Amino acid sequence: MAVEMLKSAVLTEAAAWMDKARCKGIDPDLFHPDENDEDQVKVAKKEKAKAICAECPVRLDCLEFAINKPEKDGIWGGATKDERDKLKRKSVKRNKPIRELAIQLIRKS
Ligand code: SF4
Prior knowledge:
109 residues, mainly alpha, 5 helices, binds iron/sulfur cluster
């Protein structure tokens, strides 16, 4: 029961910012390239997705959400899974909150 309530709360919290997502209505394949795509197609999709994320008003929420859900592949918050994993490791190593490092990453890009 508690898990169901937590799931519901998490989804509600996520849904609040997801409603403002810049990618809403855009083909999700852009953010989740197919493994069978050629490398240049994957790169092109990644660049397009990152450009959309760069103008997204909920990028920080999205990035933080994805970092805390490590099973998520694709571009979230303008970062690839590798970039998010790196940020998470950095957070542990430097004992800094993920959100603080996520803000720095967004400012750099
Ligand atoms: S940051 Fe990118 S993936 Fe996340 S909600 Fe915004 S546009 Fe979508």
